[in-house]
Amino acid sequence: MPTAKLVFVVDDNPSMLRGIGRLLRACGFASRLFETGGALLRHGSFDSAVCLILDINLSDGSGIELRHRLADQGIEIPVIYITGNDNPATRMAATASGCVAYLTKPFTANSLIQPIERLLAGVA
């Protein structure tokens, strides 16, 4: 069972990572921040998070590939993708991997918070 309002965030841009962490905190969410996909994988404890906010282009690989690795390990966690490099192929691959939202940077605070709130309400 997820810990109430804990969100994992993976983004290799430190300022984006801190900004999302501040936004989540201001909206009443706890967050665990990771600069790489590898750091997320080493952390484990995926059952404690409500969802994963995942940058698609990470310094240590593709966020979409990371999502597939998690699924291959039997880890099912709702994913919100964020990207600064939107294109139809990436959008299609992200959607096919089973995300609850796909956001293009810069995105509004509300567009990030709404999918998380829907997950908590059980309507995502």
Automatic annotation (TrEMBL):
Keywords from the UniProt entry: Phosphoprotein
Keyword Phosphoprotein annotated: yes
Chain positions found as 4-aspartylphosphate: 55
Boundaries of every Response regulatory domain copy: 6-120
Entries under Pfam families matching the protein: Response_reg
SUPFAM superfamilies: CheY-like
Coiled coil: none
PANTHER family named in the record: STRESS RESPONSE REGULATOR PROTEIN 1, TWO-COMPONENT RESPONSE REGULATOR
Protein name: Response regulator
Species in which this protein is naturally found: Bradyrhizobium brasilense
Organism ancestry: Bacteria, Pseudomonadati, Pseudomonadota, Alphaproteobacteria, Hyphomicrobiales
